[in-house]
């Protein structure tokens, strides 16, 4: 998060850390769907795709970027992120993977949602992430520093503070959750809806913004 003047705020930093503590990127599948993909060896979480798999032609970092665009690009009145019931869970869902928005915690939302997912869908469990893009004039790279290096280093700093993380699926805890952390290998363009400036981030421009996701 950033202030309206484009400066990182203390409360914004804490929000990132709280979100990161409960975040993992994991694309789950049914047994039938998983059989469509080659066996990469031992899988500590058989219900999940392998960490180096490319479900439906995309690696996990790319799925994380797509899920971020889904959150940032959906107007506030339909937002699955700010929805307290789960009624918006099917908004703009397309393709073989079904995104589940994170429970972001205060001041966004804390509680329980209910969502009905169609059959034959893989599930991307999006519980949170550090999403970084420049916010002039203050949050910008140093002279000579690339934008990617600047954003990736900032996101990494906050993700590295996470030292405890538990995730369960169907009541079963997942193993080695920290190993499901994925980082954008390069900048990608994120277009946020302007209606999210007030509740989510004042630095959203409504135009494509070079971005890095780490989580």
Question: Can you walk me through this structure?
Answer:
The protein has four helices and eight strands. The protein has helices at residues 10-21, 31-34, 60-73, 147-159, and strands at residues 25-28, 97-100, 122-126, 130-133, 168-169, 172-173, 188-190, 209-214. Residues 1-26 and 29-34 have low confidence and may be disordered. The strands form three sheets. A three-stranded mixed sheet has the order 1-3-2, covered by helices on one side. Strands 4-8-7 form a three-stranded antiparallel sheet, sandwiched between helices. A two-stranded antiparallel sheet has the order 5-6. By secondary structure, it is α+β, with helices and mostly antiparallel strands. A hairpin with a 2-residue loop joins strand 5 and strand 6 (172-173). It has one domain (10-214).
DSSP E strands, number: 8
Helix and strand string, N-terminal first?
HEHHEEEHEEEE
Task: Determine Rg (CA atoms, Å).
Answer: 17 Å
- Shape verdict: globular
Keywords for this entry:
215 residues; alpha+beta; 3-stranded mixed sheet; 3-stranded antiparallel sheet; 8 strands; globular
Describe the structure concisely for a colleague.
With 215 residues, this protein is an alpha+beta fold. The chain contains 4 helices and 8 strands; from the N terminus they run H-E-H-H-E-E-E-H-E-E-E-E.
Show the helix and strand layout.
Layout: H1 10-21, E1 25-28, H2 31-34, H3 60-73, E2 97-100, E3 122-126, E4 130-133, H4 147-159, E5 168-169, E6 172-173, E7 188-190, E8 209-214
Parallel strand pairs: 2-3
Antiparallel strand pairs: 1-3, 4-8, 5-6, 7-8
